[in-house]
C-alpha cells in the first residue's frame, strides 16, 4: 500500500486497529488527535502501541475553524479517512464524505459506528454489542450465566471489516461513503446460527464445554491433565481418532449428531486415559484436529515468529503475510509528533 495516504480520527480499539493493519501493509496513516490525544494513551504505553504502531500523529482541534481548515488540507491529499465515533459526532466534526468531497471528490470516508451512520447514537462499546447481538447469550456453560470472550471480539472484527470496506472503495476508483457497524459485523459473524433460526426456527442454545451445534465431537474435553480441544468435522477424522482412542461405532456424521450424549460420554472416558499434551502428540500425526488448551503466554512462547519489535515495544505482528514484502514495524507516534497540516498532503514536524 505504499503511496496510499489514510487519515484516522478514532479512539480506543476498532478504528485504530483497522488503520494499523493498513499501516503494516505500507500505507501512510496519519492519526488526527485532539489536543488531549486519543484516550487510549491514558490506558498505557503498551496498550497504545498495540493499536497505533507505524502511524503519524497530528494534533487538530476539529471544533475550531482552524482545525477544520487543516482537516480539509489533509483530506485534499488523502485517499481515505476512517473514523470511529458516534454518528452525531462524526457529522458535527465534518467527517463524512458529504462534508469532505469539496476538498477531494475521490476520498473514501469510512464511518465505523455502533449501529450505522443513520442508526442509534447510543454508546456502543465491544461488550455492549456482544450483549445486544446474542453473542454473550451463546457463550458460557448452559448452567451458568452468559459470559464474554477474554478479548475484544466485536471491536477487532469490526476493525478488519472496516479496513476491507475502505480498500474495496479505493480499488473502485471512486470516492464515497462507506459504513460499517459493530452490530452488523457481529450479526454477520453469527452466520450459521442466524441462518438456522431464520430458515428453520432453531433457537440457538449454549452447549457444555463450548460444543459445536452441528459437529460431534467438537468441543473442549477434560483429560488426565489439562483440557483438549477436539474438532471432528467429517467421518475421516472420526475414523482415525476413534481407532486411536479405542472407540467403536458412530461412523457417520448423522449418527454422531443423533447420539450426541453417547458419543461425548465415550470420548470423555477415552480421553481421561492420557494427558492433553499426550493426546495432542498422538493425534497430530494422524491429521486429527486437536490442541491443548494453552494460556496466551504459552502460545506466544511457542510462536516466537509472531512477535515483532516496534521501537521499544514487543508486539504481535501483522497476520497478513505477503510474499516479497516485509512490514516496517515502527513505534507508535508521540502525541502531535508530526505537527499540523500546512499544505496539501504535507505536515510540519513539531
Automatic annotation (TrEMBL):
UniProtKB keywords: Transferase
Pfam hit, one: CoA_transf_3
Highest taxon of source: Bacteria
GO MF terms, alphabetically ordered: transferase activity
Keyword Transferase: yes
Protein name per Swiss-Prot or TrEMBL: CaiB/BaiF CoA transferase family protein
Organism: Streptomyces lutosisoli
